[in-house]
Design goal:
By secondary structure, the protein is an alpha+beta fold. The chain has helices at about 1-10, 25-45, 55, 60-115, 125-145, 165-190, 195-200, 205-235, 260-285, 295-315, 355-360, and strands at about 320-325, 335, 340-345, 365, 370-375, 375-380, 380-385, 390-395, 400-410, 420-425. The two termini are about 50 Å apart.
């Protein structure tokens, strides 16, 4: 749908130089970049006080409303272009995942060929290469069936269209354990001596693989539990989630706002180090499951527990702390009346990842029974209204004088507490 919207917004013959349609990667990317450049130019123009029509230039409130509407419409066009580029990017990365998988298989072949010089080619090398080919075929099939959703990356993309750290870590351990088991299966199939076969079967004993089995169970459980916790917190309005334009590799180490988080970083780093150790152990002892030492296994479990605690601690419900009458320089102090601007102060008004103009324009303030859309006020490089801790809206004439309740609905659809104010005639 987003691709069709982007295609409908361009004129016929756009496949010439500078294609901006949504059915080719370069066209979708160019169209998005052009839309972003136009939006930034318009925002900075309005921030400098230029581009206002004469019909609204005489009124501060009318000009603010007109600017907000113009920026909102342009931001929606940027959002449509971003969705089109995101869909094309997912299809493209679905193909690249297949190339990456088979590139890894070729790299393994080259490494084994180089290390076999002098030592000779062994059955373990053949089993490792065949196991890699089998895993590669499985990932290729997954890439084909999910080619419109990122290929082999589809299982680790969350509902918010971001790469999930917990799923990526769990998927890495699952693939490694599957590869290790396939290596043992290949060696068992090629073994001709019953003593060797008994040794390979003994290599799968729980006593030898207890550490790696425990880590696998915990990281998979964390992936399932995190999804459940996030879903419940979103439904309970204790966590605000905004869908991303497309997945990014940085999602594994950052929060929804793109800031690096300690819990995610340490979980990825510790898990990667443990995986590298397990891979080395498998290369040195391809006749048994990697015997992950309990010290390293406990380290991974502590890292997973820290990550889980961080998921419980993040977020929070937006809250209104106070509402005051907005006063311009030189104005007299007075009560709140219809037509006045009110400043709402609090916390958590802008969810992480909702700093784009099209997201900010979705914020609504309920004043009594009247819904007021929060106006966008541009400044060089961004917006002065709304912000995460304060926003300003006018009190419409439809608001009845008396005690009325004020409540904010954020871009994520989460409602704040109700705050009562007095509106005089």
């Amino acid at each position: 749908m987003a691709v069709q919207e982007a295609r409908d917004n361009v004129t016929a013959g756009a496949h010439a130089g500078g294609c901006t349609c949504g059915d080719c990667p370069h066209g979708a990317r160019a169209g998005h970049r052009r839309a972003v450049a136009e939006f930034l130019a318009k925002r900075d123009e309005f921030a400098a006080g230029q581009g206002l029509p004469a019909a609204v230039a005489h009124s501060a409130s009318a000009s603010r409303q007109w600017i907000s509407e113009e920026l909102t419409q342009t931001a929606e066009e940027v959002a449509a272009r971003a969705r089109a580029e995101g869909e094309v990017w997912l299809r493209r990365v679905g193909r690249w995942t297949m190339y990456a998988v088979w590139g890894a298989v070729v790299l393994l072949l080259l490494v084994q060929a180089l290390t076999a010089i002098g030592a000779g080619w062994t059955a373990a090398r053949t089993a490792g290469l065949l196991a890699a080919a089998v895993v590669g075929l499985g990932l290729t099939a997954a890439s084909w069936f999910h080619r419109a959703r990122g290929g082999a990356l589809a299982p680790v993309i969350g509902e918010d269209n971001r790469l999930s750290t917990s799923r990526a870590v769990a998927a890495s351990w699952v693939l490694f354990v599957v590869y290790a088991v396939l290596v043992l299966a290949g060696r068992l199939a090629a073994a001709s001596d019953h003593v060797e076969r008994d040794a390979l079967i003994a290599g799968l004993d729980l006593a030898r693989g207890a550490g790696i089995v425990t880590v696998l169970a915990v990281v998979c459980g964390i992936a399932v539990l995190v999804r459940r916790v996030v879903a419940l917190r979103v439904l309970g309005q204790r966590l605000q989630k905004v869908r991303a334009e497309r997945p990014r590799a940085a999602d594994l180490l950052t929060d929804d706002a793109g800031r690096g988080t300690f819990t995610d970083i340490q979980y990825v780093v510790v898990s990667t180090a443990a995986l590298v150790y397990a891979a080395v152990r498998l290369a040195r002892r391809p006749d048994q499951l990697p015997d992950l030492p309990w010290g390293l296994a406990v380290l991974v479990l502590v890292s997973a527990a820290t990550y889980m605690a961080g998921k419980y601690a993040e977020g929070g419900q937006p809250v209104i702390l106070s509402v005051v009458r907005s006063r311009e320089a030189g104005d007299l102090d007075a009560a709140i009346r219809t037509g006045d601007d009110i400043e709402i102060r609090g916390a958590g008004f802008v969810p992480p990842g909702a700093q784009r103009a099209d997201r900010l324009a979705r914020m609504v303030v309920r004043i009594g029974t009247v819904h007021v859309h929060v106006p966008l006020v541009p400044v060089p490089g961004g917006f002065s209204n709304p912000t995460d801790t304060a926003l300003t809206v006018p009190v419409p004439a439809d608001v009845e004088p008396g005690r009325v309740e004020v409540q904010l609905v954020t871009a994520a659809g989460v409602e704040t507490n109700r705050y009562t104010i007095d509106v005089t005639e």
